[in-house]
Design brief:
By secondary structure, the chain is α+β, with helices and mostly antiparallel strands. The strands form six sheets. A seven-stranded mixed barrel has the order 9-10-16-19-18-17-15. The protein has a six-stranded mixed sheet with strand order 5-4-1-6-7-8, sandwiched between helices. It has a two-stranded antiparallel ribbon with strand order 2-3. Helix 1 packs antiparallel against helix 3 and helix 4 runs parallel beside helix 5. It starts with a strand and ends in a 6-residue tail after the last helix. About 5% of the residues have low confidence.
């Protein structure tokens, strides 16, 4: 939690114009952004106070104790949770015909923070917004103020309105960079303003604070507005590597920020200015008994899980017993080469694993050695990860990270078998594969538009799109409009801030620099427009349309021929646009049937099997086809009239073997052949045909997953003979 005191200068010099608006207008925008950030993203325990100096009125505690000092300083808001009243106060502030001492205001703000926080655990911060135009009569007290702020651990941020940009002074003072024409601003500022600015820089340097120019501050405040998240560990305990234990803690690194939940309230209570406008949801369950709906009390309700069309009931005790129980842990399972890990295996958010601070130096050294060893050997770690007792176990991947700031392991969740989606996609035909020139053109385009190797005006490379500066447009637009509606319920919905929208669109300079490469890609991948014919094959054609000419047979025949030629030409153009020389307009009936086969029938089992094996839209279809084929073979032998059905059964086995070898389904084929042998080996006529056709099991030389060696496979057909 944080205690923030905002100190705003409203003195006479703040009425000067700068860039078409007064200095105070710029300062008020900065303060409004600070308050809005606390309202939207701050913690519930954060508190804020506000002090104005340069006011005609004097109202502060230090002045009450010392009437001759701390004049023209006014406390307008004591420490409390920020609300709309603070924003309304800022909006109503105007320039006053007085001047206040900035050091007096800082002492008042410091006293307010110390009185409020005392020994509580607060982060203490002062934001000072001023042009340094007022007199600083007690500049000898600067060192006293610096010492006191350092003792109280109060951080100071100064937003300088119209401060000059001076690179040499920036390096000496250690403050942030400036924006604007420094020399012009310095020339336009009064002598006392320049002196005050130098004193404030000295103050910032002594307290380790920051100084931002007004326009720069607005940009910075607009981009740093993110929800504050407490640094809370997800797991704290040992990381077990065999018998070795390293005490670690895990923290969230990335997590999806969802849209804020909208709170419901009573419109009636709002209209009547009620104190409590909130509403609550009450859920009621009913069961239809006869014609009436009867309410079911909680005591009489039970949970049930679907099992097919049936519902299987479970009591609360059963549900508790169903839960998987385990202790929290982070156990290393194995080490894997990091280049074998596929990017699409990583699920969900990313956690950061670091050594525990209070576990000692030796523990940190063990962790550091472990990370460096993984990095050197280019290895990653698979582990079992349970955040807390009885939590769902996670199959995790730990990858080493070493940078100047820290050494850690990044933890990603890996999918279990049930999480993996094994989709089957068709491959490109040979005529659709890009040639060498097309691949080169696309490679050059990618290289030119690489954001990591962008060059500035001086030829230095830089990263053009930093992910930490890319904001969620949905969230930003939502917050932007909530801020407006808070003041005016009738205000219209605004469009997205251009600064945020810019990061979501291609960079204009980047596109201009890649103009040559884009043109080359367009030339290498030509597109041809295929005009859609208005007349379709299924469209009804009436004789009156053809008899609109002279009505002769020759005229009708000519129209039919022309229509067929148009259809063929359109198909050729479509084929050429896809990279081929045209398409074959003669469609065979076998091709149509092959795409519709969904089961192996008894009429044409071999053709049905091959058609199903060619389908790529269902990953389970080959297994189903093999099972159905073995049933056909079994029926052919079992129901054969004499030996009439045996040749068909052997042909089916031969076709099935070819398909299983091609698709590496040796297990299903060999299991089925073993079942056939067990059932029909005593039918000599049939088994002799099988032996003559050499329909032996698939061996390891044909499919590495087979359990049969080549010798065992040959011996299968004639077990009593030596192969």
């Amino acid at each position: 939690k944080e205690a923030v005191c905002v100190i705003l200068d409203v003195g006479r010099s703040m009425g000067k114009e700068s860039g078409g608006e007064t200095r105070l207008d710029l300062a008020k925008k900065a303060v409004q952004m600070l308050v809005q950030t606390k309202l939207l993203f701050g913690k519930k325990s954060d508190e804020m106070a506000m002090v104005l100096f340069g006011t005609a009125v004097t109202e502060n505690k230090l002045n009450e104790e010392h009437p001759d000092h701390y004049k023209h300083v006014q406390q307008v808001h004591v420490f409390a949770k920020p609300d709309l009243d603070v924003l309304e106060t800022v909006s109503a502030v105007e320039v006053e015909d007085a001047e206040g001492d900035v050091l007096d205001a800082l002492f008042v703000g410091l006293e307010m923070i110390v009185s409020r926080v005392k020994h509580l655990k607060f982060t203490k911060r002062i934001f000072l917004i001023t042009d340094a135009g007022g007199p600083i009569r007690d500049d000898a007290h600067i060192q006293m103020l610096i010492d006191e702020m350092n003792i109280q651990e109060v951080k100071l941020n100064i937003i300088g309105v119209d401060f000059a940009e001076d690179e040499d002074e920036d390096e000496d003072s250690g403050t942030d960079g400036r924006m604007g024409d420094g020399e012009k601003k310095a020339a336009s500022r009064a002598e006392n303003e320049i002196k005050g600015e130098l004193l404030l820089k000295q103050l910032a340097q002594g307290t380790g604070g920051q100084i931002l120019i007004g326009s720069e501050a607005l940009t910075a405040l607009n981009f740093i507005r993110k929800r504050t998240v407490s640094m809370v560990h997800k797991y704290k305990g040992p990381m077990n590597i065999g018998a070795l234990e390293i005490q670690v803690a895990t923290y969230g690194k990335t997590s999806v920020q969802n849209m804020p939940t909208l709170k419901k309230e009573s419109a009636v209570a709002v209209e009547q200015n009620g104190l409590d406008t909130g509403v609550r949801m009450v859920r009621t369950y009913y069961n239809k008994l006869g014609e009436d709906d009867v309410e079911v009390e909680k005591l009489h309700r039970i949970k049930a899980y679907p099992y097919g069309k049936q519902l299987v009931p479970f009591s609360e005790a059963d549900i508790d017993n169903l839960k998987y129980t385990c202790d929290k842990c982070l156990t290393v399972l194995a080490f894997v080469p990091i280049d074998t890990v596929k990017r699409y295996w990583c699920l969900g958010a990313v956690d950061c694993v670091v050594p525990m601070k209070d576990a000692g130096v030796r523990n940190g050294l063990k962790f550091s050695a472990f990370v460096h060893a993984l990095k050197k050997e280019k290895l990653a770690v698979t582990a079992r990860y349970v955040k807390r007792k009885n939590a769902t176990p996670v199959f995790a991947l730990l990858t080493p990270e070493i940078n100047p700031e820290n050494e850690c392991l990044y933890l990603n969740q890996l999918p279990f078998s049930e999480d993996y989606r094994d989709y089957v996609f068709g491959s490109f035909e040979e005529k659709h594969k890009p040639d060498q020139n097309q691949r080169l053109a696309m490679r050059n385009l990618i290289k030119r538009m690489d954001l990591n190797t962008m060059e500035d005006e001086d030829g230095f490379e830089f990263e053009a799109l930093n992910m930490e500066e890319v904001f969620n447009p949905c969230l930003r637009r939502f917050y932007q409009n909530v801020e407006k509606r808070a003041f005016d319920p009738e205000v219209s919905i605004e469009e997205l801030d251009p600064a945020v929208a810019k990061t979501l669109n291609p960079d204009e300079k980047l596109l201009i620099s890649a103009k040559k490469e884009v043109k080359n890609v367009v030339e290498r991948f030509p597109l041809q427009v295929v005009e859609k014919k208005t007349a379709s094959k299924n469209k009804k054609r009436h004789w009156r349309d053809f008899l609109s000419g002279d009505g002769s047979v020759a005229h009708v025949s000519a129209m039919l021929v022309q229509e067929d030629e148009d259809l063929i030409q359109a198909k050729k153009l479509k084929g050429a646009s896809l990279g081929g020389e045209g398409i074959d307009t003669k469609i065979k009936m076998d091709d149509i049937v092959a795409h519709k086969v969904d089961m192996v029938g008894s009429a044409t089992p071999v053709e049905d099997l091959k058609a199903m094996a060619e389908r790529k839209d269902d990953p389970d279809i080959i297994t189903r086809a093999i099972k159905e084929m073995w049933k056909i073979i079994n029926d052919c032998v079992q129901e054969s009239f004499g030996s009439a059905g045996y040749p068909k059964a052997v042909d089916c086995i031969q076709a099935l073997r070819e398909v299983c070898v091609k698709n590496e389904e040796s297990s299903d084929f060999n299991t089925g052949l073993e079942a056939i042998a067990k059932s029909f080996r005593d039918r000599k006529a049939f088994w002799d045909m099988v032996v003559d056709a050499k329909m032996r099991p698939i061996d390891k030389t044909e499919d590495a997953t087979s359990k049969y060696t080549k010798e065992a496979s040959k011996k299968f057909l004639t077990p009593d003979e030596t192969p």
